[in-house]
Amino acid sequence: MNRNLNVRNFGLRSRDATRALMTAYQMKGNGYASNATVQSALRAFTRFLKENYLIKDLRKVEQCHVKGFAEQLNDRYERGEISASTVQNYLSPVNVAMENARLDTKCRVEGVREAGLPTRTGIATQDQSATLNAHKNALQSVSERLGIQLNLQRELGLRLKESCLMDAKQALNQALTKQHVRIEQGTKGGRPRDVPIHAYSQIEALQRAVMVQRKDSSLIPEHQTWAQYQSQVYRELTSQSLHCHQERHHFANAMYERLMGVKSPVQSGISHQSHHAYLASVLSISKSEAKVRDEQVRLCVAEALGHSRISITNNYLG
To answer: What is the pLDDT of residues 84-133, one digit of tens each?
Structure first.
């Protein structure tokens, strides 16, 4: 197909972004976009672009927008709406179609490595936690505001949107008087939760957030919408070796170790199938007791992350 990349939808012969993406997907031997999952994925992506960024022309799509879509997929997975394999099956055709449309890979997002998506099994085999060095390096490079939010994600296990919509002044008061922080804004499905305060580093993160927030009602800049600020965040993190979800992985694994007394399976290098036997050996308890304690701790982690299913912790802990 001879086309002019400078016209709407990269000259893919349709003013409709979904049809243009389907045409792009069919290029380079991918066959017809007749597969129901492919069609559903591309429609979901263009709907996401329109609803969140008012984008109807593929030329305006950047990698930060694909990352936003990946984060939405992650949220849907963690709410139990779609399976881990469906998450991968939705992001893959978007990557292919955008690459064919643009004739480059500038919008490609690697699901697990760059967006923190679950593996196809939903069980982590590699630790996705942000290391302390990666965290510190990011703080030196990003804006002060984003650095504050990364701290909140790391210390309180917040999603990106939760860390942006939080009223830090109210949260600090709760932390000092109630020893927990109530997370309500930006939660998925409007499901509030309480995150326990157990360390002074959590108080410090909130204190710094209060200084940045000043008189505003949240940590989103007053002159920006959530969608605008989200795009800015992803642009800032493009050159960094971490993504926001890695801070949440750190929180989950640190909480598991604190409550269990043993590092999580993924941090211990133990398979999910063998971890009860491993816990029993290390803690000198029976395998059945290890299973009960592991489930109790995973329930605490799931609740702190804002999940109703213990199984979702497999993606964080192994």
So the answer is: 889 989 999 999 999 999 999 999 999 888 888 888 888 999 999 999 99
Buried b (16+ CB within 10 A) or exposed e, 6-30: eebbbbbeeeebbbbbbbbbbeeee
- Tokens 């927990």 sit at which residue? 180
Structure tokens at 232: 């800015």
Eight-state DSSP code of residue 15: S
What is the enclosing helix (H) or strand (E) of 196? Answer: strand 193-196
Give the residue from 109, 314, 146, 317 showing the smallest Cα distance to 224: 146
Residues 6+ apart with CB under 8 A from 167: 185, 213, 217, 218
E strand segments, 47-156: none
Distance (Å, rounded) from C-alpha 163 to C-alpha 149? 6
Q: Which long-range contacts (CB under 8 A, 24 or more apart) does 128-132 make?
A: 128/245, 128/246, 128/249, 128/316, 129/246, 129/249, 129/250, 129/252, 129/253, 129/267, 130/154, 130/242, 130/246, 130/247, 130/249, 130/250
> How many residues are present in the chain?
318
Buried b (16+ CB within 10 A) or exposed e, 69-103: bbbebbebbbbeebebebbbbbbebbbbbbbbbbe
Tell me which residue has tokens 């999603």.
159
